[in-house]
């Protein structure tokens, strides 16, 4: 996608052929800074500190991290250590585990002399695959938006999204945003309600930034506004992303997603989840009981960062000193609340049979 008219991806191989460039998402929307990742330790730190974030992008970053590790030491021990370091960074997004397995599968049978080239090649393939998948997700989601637009000619299609499932969360295009970008580019009048997404404000700082640069009409709202909008007929469809989907269609996404799904169900608003197939975890069935929910630093809740009137970037505390804080990063939306899963192979029911039939190659391993 574009930033000030220039095409960017969220991650790329630098012209030197070995180091990795990535947009530092911690600084958006106030500063646009490109970070250079030169080691597996730096890749792990980028994931851990959320310099990069979003399940598909985490997977791509981990793949490049393995390639960087192989450049320093291509031994089995180094490969194992790199994967151990990277898998420990974020527990919830399954794409991380998938990407590391793909890298191990590609490299383990090879002689040491061929591993560096193969590692960079496979990491590049994972990145390109993500872009292609997201374009397909966009096409399938576009059909849903077109159908809504056909029922209300001349009116806006109002879409609600939560967190950032845009191109910043993937390598390009995004998952939940891909249909929106395609609809906008086709001339369909769309408007996006952007949940702020506390505590890290990925909606307000990242999704709004993306949509603004692409020219998509949008409005940032407080996290608890969605239900009110749905009650008053101001939301036609909700489309969100996900960090992990279970074999039976339960969806784990940014904290607050479950509440949006409940409000959508109560108001008969379609609730769709957009995801690439590597986000499906066929090894588990019960999202609430089996998906590990990351608990992040309390400072994310206690403080907020923004630009002051005189242009300075400041972080301030908004919670009283001494008040205990809990920071659960994700929640699980049961499959029964999901209207459909928008994947690269079509819009599927949130159920085991639909997922396994669409992706038999993935399901057969479990």
Automatic annotation (TrEMBL):
Site (Transition state stabilizer): 163
Statement: the UniProt record of this protein carries the keyword Cytoplasm: yes
Species of provenance: Bradyrhizobium canariense
Stated role: Catalyzes the interconversion of methylthioribose-1-phosphate (MTR-1-P) into methylthioribulose-1-phosphate (MTRu-1-P).
Family note: Belongs to the EIF-2B alpha/beta/delta subunits family. MtnA subfamily.
Keywords assigned: Amino-acid biosynthesis, Cytoplasm, Isomerase, Methionine biosynthesis
Gene that specifies this protein: mtnA
Coiled-coil intervals, chain numbering: none
EC class: isomerase
One of the GO BP terms on file: L-methionine salvage from methylthioadenosine
Catalytic activities: 5-(methylsulfanyl)-alpha-D-ribose 1-phosphate = 5-(methylsulfanyl)-D-ribulose 1-phosphate
EC number(s) from the headed UniProt entry: 5.3.1.23
Catalytic site positions: 243
Pathway the protein contributes to: Amino-acid biosynthesis; L-methionine biosynthesis via salvage pathway; L-methionine from S-methyl-5-thio-alpha-D-ribose 1-phosphate: step 1/6
GO MF annotations, alphabetized: S-methyl-5-thioribose-1-phosphate isomerase activity
Domain of life assignment: Bacteria
Protein's name in the database: Methylthioribose-1-phosphate isomerase
Transmembrane segments: none
Residues given in the record as substrate binding sites: 53-55, 90, 202, 253-254
InterPro entries per record: IF-2B-related, IF-M1Pi, IF_2B-like_C, Initiation_fac_2B_a/b/d, M1Pi_N, NagB/RpiA_transferase-like
């Amino acid at each position: 996608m574009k930033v000030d008219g220039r095409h960017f991806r969220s991650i790329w191989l630098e012209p030197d052929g070995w180091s990795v460039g990535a947009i530092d998402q911690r600084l958006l929307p106030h500063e646009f800074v490109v970070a250079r990742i030169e080691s597996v330790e730096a890749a792990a730190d980028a994931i851990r500190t959320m310099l990069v974030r979003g399940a598909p992008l985490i997977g791509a970053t981990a793949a490049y991290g393995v390639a960087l590790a192989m450049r320093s030491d291509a031994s089995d021990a180094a490969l194992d250590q790199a994967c151990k370091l990277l898998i420990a960074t974020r527990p919830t997004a399954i794409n991380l585990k998938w990407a590391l397995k793909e890298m191990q599968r590609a490299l383990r049978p090879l002689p040491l002399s061929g591993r560096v080239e193969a590692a960079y090649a496979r990491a590049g393939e994972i990145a390109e695959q993500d872009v292609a998948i997201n374009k397909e997700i966009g096409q399938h989601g576009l059909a849903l938006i077109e159908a809504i637009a056909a029922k209300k000619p001349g009116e806006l299609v109002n879409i609600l999204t939560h967190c950032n499932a845009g191109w910043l969360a993937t390598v390009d295009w995004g998952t939940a945003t891909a249909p929106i970008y395609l609809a906008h580019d086709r001339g369909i009048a769309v408007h996006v309600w952007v949940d702020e997404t506390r505590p890290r404000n990925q909606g307000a700082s990242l999704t709004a930034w993306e949509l603004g640069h692409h020219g998509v009409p949008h409005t940032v709202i407080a996290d608890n506004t969605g239900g009110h909008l749905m009650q008053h007929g101001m939301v036609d469809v909700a489309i969100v992303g996900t960090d992990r989907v279970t074999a039976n269609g339960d969806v784990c996404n940014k904290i607050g997603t479950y509440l949006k799904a409940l409000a959508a169900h109560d108001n008969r608003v379609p609730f769709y989840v957009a995801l690439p197939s590597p986000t499906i975890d066929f090894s588990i069935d019960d999202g609430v009981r089996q998906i590990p929910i990351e608990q992040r630093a309390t400072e994310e809740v206690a403080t907020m960062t923004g630009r002051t009137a005189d242009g300075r970037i400041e972080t301030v505390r908004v919670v009283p000193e001494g008040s205990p804080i809990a920071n659960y990063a994700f929640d699980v939306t049961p499959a029964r609340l999901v209207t459909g899963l928008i994947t690269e192979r079509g819009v599927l029911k949130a159920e085991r049979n639909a997922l396994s039939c669409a992706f038999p190659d993935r399901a057969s391993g479990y």
